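dude i think i finally got it to work??
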Amino acid sequence: MDDPRTTEDVIELGNVRKAFGSHVVLDDISLGVQHREILGLLGPSGAGKTTLIKIMLGLLAPDAGEVSVFSHPPRAFSSDASKRIGVVLDDPCLYERLTCTENLKVFLKARGIKDMGCADKILKRVGLDKSRSVCAQDLSKGMRQRLSLARALMHDPELLFLDEPTSGLDPGTAEDIHALLLKRRATGVTIFLTTHNMEEATKICDRVILLNEGRIVEAGAPREICARHSKEHCVTVIQGKRSFRFSDINKDADKICAILKAGNVTSISTESPNLEAVFLQLTGRELE
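look at this
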């Protein structure tokens, strides 16, 4: 099997289509995910994000198109290939009556990993070291998400699939998970995540794909996408107690210069659309 570190794309999808009855969930999806990249698939609920992850994991078969992970179709994964992948889906499937440590040890045993001591190490890494003896049923939503992430990281995977990894979490917990993901990316891990949180995507994703009603409507680096769809290049100048806002830098250049020459300017700021505004512009829909 090819080492993903020597290939350009860890994941490749070509013209993937999936329908359930007459409802088309994914329509002609093509994308590639490079090694050591965080790629975010963004879209509202029902856009097809979870279905696409399940296809890449081999849990669902596409109706048409090609899917390759580590240069192999997911349904042809060997046990060695599956060990290179970590997954956090929307349903964590934890053993509710087992403690955090026991949950991870069950996973380690299933993976054939004999070093049971690494369970406590990974719990510390995700901030659950003080809760190692707490049963899963007694954990908060944020702590359950951390435990799911710990389980996905137990075997040091090269590729992570994360479905809405911070959905419903408090800002502090989300920040901790972001930091952890960025550290994993720095060690060479490739991460594919879904989210409807545009701020999250802008902060941690190298590239994003905007998905709406099963189709890709835009793709690229977050700031590049925003720049492409910026209809207005707004500048706000604060002079003393007065505020001046200009919507066209080129057209209003003389006015801006005149204010600067007059002095007493305390602030100059620029505005550009965020990903949520771009999505609304392209689809007429808000992300919910």
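Residues 158 and 189 are 5 Å apart (CA to CA).
im so relieved honestly
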